[in-house]
């Protein structure tokens, strides 16, 4: 996991514990005051939300306890693609440029240029260097990219 990914998870965990959990507890208490719990939709919705929040808290805590945080800024720049680097690619056929940051699975956000280290593109790029041409197998065939630049940002 990248430093930014760990921070995002810690921020989400803090928000869940300090804001979402107390709010849902208050919602449950308020719904209980409305009477018969068997037919109380507000109560059941609040309990369902509480289950989701508690599950997410456990999920985040487990991920944070098991993760290994990689600070790419602390790693010397060698021009080699590694976890956490941002890679500028040029499509060999169309000269179209793309830029991807290789991140952990929980951090992947394709519209924002963050791809999972387990994705086909990232797997093809890891270990390659600036100037290398990489063939990436996709469902519609094979795309060749030239690695234009590897950035530690």
Could you characterize what this model shows?
- The chain is of the alpha+beta class.
- It is 41% helix and 22% strand.
- The protein has three helices and five strands, in the order H-H-E-E-E-H-E-E.
- The protein has helices at residues 3-32, 41-66, 120-125; strands at residues 86-91, 97-103, 114-116, 133-138, 141-151.
- A five-stranded mixed beta sheet has the order 3-2-1-5-4.
- Strand 4 and strand 5 (141-151) form a beta hairpin.
- Helix 1 (3-32) packs antiparallel against helix 2 (41-66).
- The longest helix is centred in the first third of the chain and has 30 residues, at 3-32.
- It is elongated.
- The model has no long low-confidence stretch (mean pLDDT 92).
Question: How are the secondary structure elements laid out?
Answer:
Elements: H1 3-32, H2 41-66, E1 86-91, E2 97-103, E3 114-116, H3 120-125, E4 133-138, E5 141-151
Parallel strand pairs: 2-3
Antiparallel strand pairs: 1-2, 1-5, 4-5
N/C terminus separation: 14 Å
Shape: elongated
Largest sheet geometry: 5 strands, mixed
How much of the sequence lies in strands comes to 15-25%
Oligomer: single chain
User: How many separate helices?
Assistant: 3
Q: What order do the SSEs take from the amino end to the carboxyl end, as H and E?
A: HHEEEHEE
Number of strands: 5
Which structural class do the helices and strands define? alpha+beta
Rounded radius of gyration (Å): 22 Å
pLDDT < 50 stretches: none
Q: Which terms summarize this structure?
A:
153 residues, alpha+beta, elongated
């Amino acid at each position: 996991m990248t430093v930014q990914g760990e921070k995002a998870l810690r921020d989400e965990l803090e928000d869940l514990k300090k804001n979402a959990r107390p709010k849902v507890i208050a919602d449950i208490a308020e719904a209980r005051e409305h009477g018969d719990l068997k037919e109380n939709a507000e109560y059941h919705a609040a309990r369902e939300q509480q289950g989701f929040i508690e599950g997410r808290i456990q999920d985040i805590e487990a991920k944070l306890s098991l993760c290994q945080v990689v600070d790419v800024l602390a790693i010397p720049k060698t021009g080699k693609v590694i976890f956490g680097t941002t890679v500028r690619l040029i499509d060999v056929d169309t000269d179209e440029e793309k830029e991807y940051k290789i991140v952990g699975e929980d951090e992947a956000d394709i519209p924002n240029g963050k791809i999972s280290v387990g994705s086909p593109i990232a797997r093809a790029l890891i270990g390659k260097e600036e100037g290398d041409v990489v063939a990436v197998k996709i469902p519609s065939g094979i795309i060749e990219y030239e690695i234009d630049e590897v950035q530690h940002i």
